[in-house]
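Thread: quick sanity check before group meeting

JM: Hey all, I'm pulling together slides for Thursday and realized we never actually wrote out the predicted structure for the chain we discussed last week. Dropping the sequence here so it's in one place. If anyone has concerns about the input, flag it before I start.
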Amino acid sequence: SLIPVQDTPGVKFTFNARVTVEKPLRVLLGAILVKEETEGDLNVFYYEQKIPIPSYLFAIAGGDISYVDISPRMRIYCEEGYLEQSKYEFEPAEDFLKAAEKILTPYEWARYDMLVLPPSFPFGGMENPCLTFLSPTILAGDRSMVNVVIHEITHSWIGNLVTNTNWSHFWLNEGINVYHERKVIQELYGDSVYNLEVLEGLKRLENYIRAVGEKHPYTVMVTNLEGIDPDDAFSPLYYEKGFFLCLYLEQTFGREFMSYFFKEYVKEYRLQSIASNDFYELLKQKVEEKMSQEGLEKLKTIDWDAWFHQPGSLPQQPKLEHKDYEAVKELALKFFKNLENVESLKDHDELVAGKWPTVKVLLFFEVLKEAIRNESKKIDPKALEWLDQQYKFSDRNAEIACKWFEICISQGYSAADEKIEKFLTTIGRMKFVKP
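JM (edit): ok, ran it. Output follows.
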């Protein structure tokens, strides 16, 4: 154990800390640095966290750490070798935070600092208050992976201020957070990228449910975890099924109302740990206040038992915008049909680095993989070689490289083995390496 506290998200605490470390090392905590001083051969750091947090958000890190400020309330910590790259990659983060404040409520944690961890870190990010941990896989050199920071920023409200009371209600942390992450993406990058993010999320949900089975208990959003390690049930389901419930509510009650509701949700439940029924009860109260009987009738159309307690995919389907996805699908199927004649595809530069946003390329691979799977197609190794030479998939950001390597592995394309081995032995992020 690190500190003597209850290991549950249902209990929150504040803390002060005095930490010593040998010079020239630095210690970081998920809190506000009050002062630092020296005592002989030691560096001494004093931290204070005045806002109550659950134990899973207590964070400490130490090492030979450099830093650079990117705004009055943001600092990037990392090893010296990552400094310039990190500064470039994360410079838009202040804009992300301002957009989140516009969508939700004023930021309460005073600082939003970030620490780039070694490659073994198993997550894309971890939303520790005042000190988000980040994987170096985000350092793509072109800001194509920086959306991970948006996800961690919106956790400053969803999860960190308003927390699930236990891990059965994990969708309250992650599903509602993905909803707000995508609202920030929509605000900053427009409807097209937002719509593609939504569809890519649906693909991720469908792939997970296909893998474990429609009736698997881990496809229940409010999961019964009695006798089960919550890590065993951890999956995209909480993120995406929770998001689509929020989207369905938005389409039922209107975007303006849901924007108002989530602001009230944060104000009502900040500093508390809640369950799914608390979410429902506040929604019912606000619907009645704003929409009277008409709103309550709409509320009755939501199949809460199916959303919360039944296994499988979405019990009620929100309307989705497919226009941009159809263009991606058309190109992917064109590539699929011309894999025996790849030279005919050379005029298509959409897949060249910097042309399409990452989410478009990922959806391209999803369609291509599905077509290959449906027809049990064996691709000529020369076609795979041409594709990688033309579009440099192996050398792109980790999201794109991972999808490309999955195709290479499924096709037994041994020419990619060396790069796949390097990928697997230099990246610890579970999303990319866990079977």
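AS: nice. The first strand starts at residue 12 and ends at 22. Residues 175 and 308 are 12 Å apart (CA to CA).
JM: adding both to the slides.
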